[in-house]
Amino acid sequence: MQIVEVFWWICLLLVVYTYVGYGIVLRLLVGIKRLAGKEDNNTAQLNYFPEVTVVIAAYNEVDFIEEKIQNTLQLDYPPNKRQVVVVTDGSTDATPDIVRQYAEVKLLHHPERRGKIAAVHRTMKEVTTPIVIFTDANTYLNPEAIQNIVRHYQNPKIGGVAGEKRVYIAEKDSASGAGEGFYWKYESALKSWDAELYSVVGAAGELFSVRTELYEDIPKDTIIEDFYLTLRIAQKGYRIAYEPDAFALEGPSASVKEELKRKIRIAAGGIQSIVRLKPLLNIFRYGILSFQYISHRVLRWTVTPFALVLVFVLNIFLYSQSDFYKLIFYGQILFYLAALIGYVLENKSIKIKAFFIPYYFFIMNYAVFRGILRYLRGSQSVTWERAERSSVP
Q1: pTM for the structure as a whole
Q2: How many CB atoms lie within 10 A of CB 219?
Q3: Strand, coil or helix: what is 107?
Q4: How many whole angstroms separate alpha carbon 22 and alpha carbon 88?
Q5: CA nearest 251: which of 186, 170, 167, 315?
Q6: Residue 379: which of 278, 265, 302 has the closest Cα?
Q7: Which of 28, 120, 342, 382 is 20 to 30 A from residue 132's alpha carbon, by CA?
Q8: Half-sphere exposure of 30 (CA within 13 A, CB side)
Q9: How far apart are CA 55 and CA 74, in angstroms?
Q10: How far is Cα 190 from Cα 26, in angstroms, rounded to an integer?
């Protein structure tokens, strides 16, 4: 029983550290860095207008592409310093035809669909600007997005910039919206502190940027290419900055089923990336970057979901040992009961958001198990079908 107790505590501490503790440790380290006077002030100037290329990869985005192009062309940045490229490989709807209506936009279209990475590789061969910005077709950027991104490149140590993903949450949104919105608010805080301590560990594809010279052709079967590409740049010794005032706004997944589809793909891609980025696990070589990478990403996609299960299972054996174990056990029962209620309310379209966050947490961890299985089976296609998302008014 003593061995069970020790193992239970290890699992519990691992779960707490992964989902809460790392944020606390990170915030404390950032506070120490501020007290030591080591804040990075190299990105204060806004009157910096290097040439940039905005790349929008769009596959059958007829519902979004026209508004996306208009949004991009209206961004507050000198038109003679900005190029816009839309790549629509494999699109079978009217997306390419809509793009052709805009003389200011360069269309790259190929009838064959070979995946986003292949399309972006083909696009990058035609990029001549020193900075490239990637953004999804179903997101809308704030007017100052480009200005706030490029100012970071005045620092030669910055190899890429991660924008902020924001999820539009309406009162009518249920579990997918409430849970996803809460998750991304927490993620945004972690990314901000990660960047302040050293570097963001992987950008989100909704909005990110890299120095063109640092872009590399990554394997075409890469599942989460934005994450992998930016970490490869960090691995070379460059930092990935974070810019919350450059944000991409999108609607939440249309349902929990659609969000689960997306999370499973991300989990499978996470395992793939961990395997391909094995050197980054060496904390003696990469130091603070490895610490951030393991704490923020690796644990979530590997051992912690299993530890979460073991905390519950082993608690059954420890239940009679003390009132403390009874309290923790009943706490877990209540949490999973809240998740179950969230599931029932979602199916009945009853909107009580307090139950949707534990439900989303459960779905997020369930997706990791499904993603690991999918990766081991090799059944994740690079030409995946994107999750349906609600529109932004």
Answers
A1: 0.89
A2: 12
A3: strand
A4: 40
A5: 167
A6: 265
A7: 382
A8: 19
A9: 15
A10: 8
Closest CA to 115 of 380, 393, 389: 380
| Model pLDDT, residue 172 | 54
Q: In what order do the strands lie in the sheet with 52-57?
A: 105-108, 82-87, 52-57, 131-136, 207-211, 158-167, 239-250, 140-141
User: Residue 220 is which amino acid?
Assistant: K
CA distance 40 to 155: 10
SS3 136: strand
CB atoms within 10 A of CB 390: 20
What does the pLDDT look like over 113-159, one tens digit per residue?
888 888 999 999 999 999 999 999 999 999 999 999 999 999 999 99
- Residue 360's CB is within 10 A of a number of other CB atoms, namely 25
Which tokens in the block code for residue 292? 């951030």
Residue 90 falls in which region: left (phi positive, over 0), alpha (psi -120 to 50) or beta:
left
Q: Specify the pLDDT at position 173.
A: 52
**Predicted confidence (pLDDT) at residue 59 exceeds the cutoff of 70:** yes
Please tell me what DSSP assigns to residue 132: E
pLDDT over 80 at 239, yes or no: yes
Q: Tell me, what's the pLDDT at 45?
A: 67
Q: What is the mean pLDDT of the chain?
A: 90
Question: Quick one: pLDDT at residue 201?
Answer: 96
Query: Could you give the CA distance from residue 206 to residue 55 in angstroms, rounded to a whole number?
Result: 11
